[in-house]
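Hi support team,

I've been running sequence recovery on a batch of backbones for a student project. Most finish fine, but this one hangs at about 90% for roughly twenty minutes before it completes. I'm not sure whether the input is malformed or the queue is just slow. I've pasted the structure tokens below so you can try to reproduce it. Let me know if you need the job ID as well.

Thanks,
M.K.
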């Protein structure tokens, strides 16, 4: 009996000990959670202070970054877009025609109008009805068809795009192709823009390499140096679309070699390397962007930029990529100068592939590295 009572008491002892241990563990976990909470709060406060310090130096707060544009929207563009939204298609026509034979600018202005028409095309329909043979109206109409198709497709990768999206996308691209061919028939013989409008059609419909080469010849025969034509072609040759990294890099290097200093075609190899890094998940940014061939491409781009007209708005496209590459190459003193030029507007490669926090991280890291005491 005594032995039985002892066992009962011993059992009670261990139960009580276990309960005390559980209570101690719970208290410890509570202190740990509280400590983690205080640590997280301290980290958040430090991050906020660092961000505020960068903003105090004149940089734009994260919430105010423009993710749609690579640079400030020109006043003339804003006025033209406001006018067509109000139904004044003649203002849109005049806006495009004002750039003359600056084909890069003509493409940019057509694209801006097309993006508006993709949301509401009443003014474009009125323009086409009033001037059915107007080559500029045909251009805007064709690019609107392209914009509508790609809006349906979306920007997600193929595995995150539904079959229905692909079906409608294909149907709309076939229409866009016919509209582009109409614009080509109406265009002046020197204008490459109607053929540039067909480039994303070719990418989406999957033109064979030979067929795409024929389209590319139509563009370069008219003007071999339109920067957007080259960057659009590079997308076609990327592994994610109709080519491979090797084909994309070969095209990029050929484009860059064809350009004179200041023509900014050095943008192409940087874009090719960036696309490779995005595509190949086993590559580490810390080492890949420091490879000798990548460093050499950055040096070539810096020389190209130095030779460019400072008033050439296209330089901002190169500066966005240079800021990114120089950041990964630990060249903060050089990178910060490009961040100063581009800050506020991040609707361009490489930032357009990532949340705005990626830009803020790279910018703020760079600024802190070159600012004593920050």
């Amino acid at each position: 009996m005594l032995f039985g009572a002892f066992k009962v008491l011993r059992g009670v002892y261990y139960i009580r000990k276990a309960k005390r241990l559980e209570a101690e563990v719970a208290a410890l976990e509570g202190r740990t959670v509280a400590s983690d909470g205080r640590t997280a709060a301290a980290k958040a406060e430090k991050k906020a202070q660092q961000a505020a310090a960068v903003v105090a130096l004149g940089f734009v707060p994260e919430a105010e970054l423009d993710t749609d544009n690579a640079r400030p929207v020109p006043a003339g563009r804003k006025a033209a877009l406001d006018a067509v939204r109000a139904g004044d298609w003649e203002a849109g026509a005049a806006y495009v025609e004002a750039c003359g034979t600056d084909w890069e600018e003509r493409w940019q202005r057509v694209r801006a109008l097309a993006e508006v028409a993709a949301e509401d095309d009443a003014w474009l329909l009125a323009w086409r009805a009033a001037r059915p043979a107007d080559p500029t109206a045909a251009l805007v109409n064709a690019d609107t068809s392209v914009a509508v198709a790609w809006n349906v497709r979306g920007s997600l990768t193929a595995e995150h795009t539904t079959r229905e999206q692909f079906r409608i996308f294909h149907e709309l691209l076939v229409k866009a192709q016919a509209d582009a061919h109409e614009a080509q028939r109406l265009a002046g013989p020197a204008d490459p823009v109607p053929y540039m409008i067909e480039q994303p059609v070719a990418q989406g419909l999957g033109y064979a390499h030979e067929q795409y080469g024929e389209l590319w010849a139509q563009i370069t025969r008219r003007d071999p140096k339109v920067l957007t034509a080259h960057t659009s072609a590079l997308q076609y040759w990327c592994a994610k679309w109709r080519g491979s990294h090797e084909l994309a890099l070969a095209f990029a290097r050929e484009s860059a070699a064809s350009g004179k200093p200041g023509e900014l075609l050095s943008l192409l190899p940087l874009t090719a390397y960036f696309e490779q890094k995005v595509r190949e998940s086993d590559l580490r940014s810390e080492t890949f962007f420091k490879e000798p061939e990548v460093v050499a491409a950055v040096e070539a781009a810096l020389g190209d930029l130095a030779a460019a007209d400072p008033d050439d708005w296209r330089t901002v496209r190169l500066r966005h990529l240079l800021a990114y590459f120089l950041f990964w190459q630990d060249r903060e003193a050089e990178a910060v100068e490009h961040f100063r030029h581009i800050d506020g507007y991040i609707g361009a490669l490489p930032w357009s592939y990532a949340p705005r926090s990626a830009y803020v991280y790279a910018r703020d890291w760079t600024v802190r590295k070159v600012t004593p005491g920050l």
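--
Follow-up from support: It reproduced on our side and the slowdown came from queue contention, not your input. The first helix runs from residue 2 to 56. No action needed from you.
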